[in-house]
Structures are given as C-alpha cells and as structure tokens.
Amino acid sequence: MSEYLVFVERARRAEKAFKILWKNGLYEDALSRGYYAIIHLCFAILIKNDLTIPKTHAGLIAKLWQCRKDLKLDEKTIKSISRIQSLRESSDYGVVPTITEDDLKVVEEVIRNLKEVLGC
To answer: What is the dihedral of CA 11, 68, 76, 78, to 10 degrees?
Structure first.
C-alpha cells in the first residue's frame, strides 16, 4: 500500500473514532481523534502534491500556510487546523474539560474540507 493510501486509511479510522466518541459525549477524546484525522489528511495532501512531511505539527501548519494556494486550501481551514491543534493540547493535558459541541463541529467541517481537496 502506498504511503498516500496509508494516511488516507488512518484518517478514515480516526474520523470513525471521532464520530463514535462525539456521539457518546467524550468530547476531549473525540477532539483528539478528529485532530489526528486532520493530520493524516494533511499528510496525504502533501504526499499527493509531492511535498515532504514536516517533522512537527507546528511545521505542518507553517507548510500548509506557505503552500495554501498550490494545495487549494483556504485560509479559514488552515486557521481552524491551528486552533484545533491548540484545543487538542489543552484537552489532552489540561485539568478542566474545555471542548464544546461547537469545537467538534469545526473539526467535522475541516475534515470535510480536506476530504474535498483530496477528492475522497
């Protein structure tokens, strides 16, 4: 299986977990799985465009921003990915639950946008 397809499959599984966790009210865990669905989709987009994968998540955001026009990504999507990254860190490491239903709706929207960019 190609590296591209591996990332698409990992994104599919993470998205499935995201939806199950969200449905069961586990918002922090849902956000984490949704975030990783986004990361895997972003990696697939980079590979599809013959670009290298950055070593850090912050590097990924920077690369997406730099290449946004070539990758056909809008500014809102990239800003949302950056915000979701921050939310994931605070939900994984923070003491007080902070994730809302609206946050998960943004994750869902970003996943949908990235899948459209990939054509899947």
So the answer is: 50
